[in-house]
């Protein structure tokens, strides 16, 4: 392989290779994907999934799936199962069984006791609001709690009573004893445990105290002997606490490394805000095809390969930025172009009659399924004297560079004949209701002896053979590119045209056999997937992406 073909390593790969070369941790790599089960995974999580599982694959290591289930008020088994489905959909398999922070609650409690005995943690009765006030500001030191100097014996007793359920929510917390004057706010005696009398989706009512993320995360990494704990940049300020706890507990030294999260243009990647969209009725659910959740984009027709390729194109950086959503859409087109069979679908049909084609005649024409894949073969398209074409493909008074159909103009019907517009009909409101054409029998596709050259080629469907379908034209959910910079309510930036439903779409008869999840390119229209709302009587298609980036033309970028 030449030097130009060798892809440069990102900074995390450089760290991993150095650790492997120096035989750190025995020369192995062990990563983990640690989602909180409080919502469905979104496109931002895909970066973490691909990075963690991809590194383990590349370097012959292992990757755990571990649920950070320490906040029972917002977590559920539904979210756990959704996360599992999405990881598997992306093409990955975790090491062994799925793991949970709740698996370690007994050990975490024991380690909290150890910190108390070492005078590195204490029970604080201070109200939550006062704790926030006493923490100070980034430029001013905090104040020590009035309960900071409790004896280890008293703290052990109180912490045990917290575990036994003797105190109500919010009355006591366990805090690390570090430094209230630290310039890092996360080191100013952070909370390690809080009281929550809430049933847990796995442990039931066994516990009424739960560890915070900062206490559970690093220790779970250590228990699993995670060598490289990859987190997004917002956790960089948490790293000193991560290291402090590991050092004080004298446990396996997992290493936290931060990378830039995936911020995507025209997209919200906050589970709290995504839930707000659902509860506000702005979308139909977590898997609405407009949602940036992995289940949503899967329903829209995005493919696992396109997501993985997109993540690879974005790369791994140390600084946050906003990635152009057009790159994601390009990755989807790139993948579907190779895989999706071409079919005829007319979204906004207008009738076209070929006056000199016999009314009782029908013939079958050969169409190529996928010019990018010879193995896809061909299919037969029925042709007759009455067709449907796209309304936008005809203009009563077309401009000079309009290469489609107009009075006196000739175009080719794909895989069929060259036709000429002879006349057209309109209703009382001025809408074209029928286009009258003639055809040249010598111009049959593949057998053309007419000698004619035309610039326009139209898609079509035989009217007497067509099926009617519903098509949902899915577009970007928001009209604002960088939603991180807005000052008003993000709901104000929703795209009112994010879904247009067309109920009278005409499709070729071969699609009557299409099944949910099948994907196609409608010639000249875009890529579509059969939605689960389809019935035996009517297919429903979601548009995955257009054939090109229409937003750039509209000046929306």
Provide an overview of this structure.
With 557 residues, the protein is an alpha/beta fold. The chain folds into three domains: 3-259, 3-Layer(aba) Sandwich (Rossmann fold); 271-341 and 469-554, Ribosomal Protein L25, Chain P (Beta Barrel), CATH 2.40.240; 345-459, Beta Barrel (Ribosomal Protein L25, Chain P), CATH 2.40.240.10. The chain has helices spanning 11-21, 43-58, 77-89, 105-117, 128-134, 152-164, 213-223, 239-249, 271-279, 294-300, 304-314, 325-339, 550-554; strands at residues 30-33, 62-67, 99-100, 121-124, 173-176, 191-195, 209-211, 228-232, 255-259, 263-264, 322-323, 341-343, 345-346, 349-354, 363-368, 378-383, 386-390, 410-413, 418-426, 432-439, 457-458, 461-462, 467-474, 499-507, 519-522, 526-530, 540-545. Strands 12-25-26-27-23-24-13 form a seven-stranded mixed beta sheet, with helices on one face. Helix 7 (213-223) crosses helix 8 (239-249). The longest helix is centred in the first third of the chain and has 16 residues, at 43-58. The protein is elongated and about 100 Å long. Mean pLDDT is 95; it is low at 1-5 and 552-557.
Query: Could you tell me how far the N terminus lies from the C terminus, measured between alpha carbons in angstroms?
Result: 39 Å
At the fold tier of CATH, the topology name of the largest domain is Rossmann fold
State the fourth-level CATH superfamily of the largest domain: HUPs
Radius of gyration: 31 Å
Biggest sheet, in brief? 7 strands, mixed
Write down how many β-strands occur, each being a DSSP E stretch of 2 or more residues.
Answer: 27
The oligomerization state is: single chain
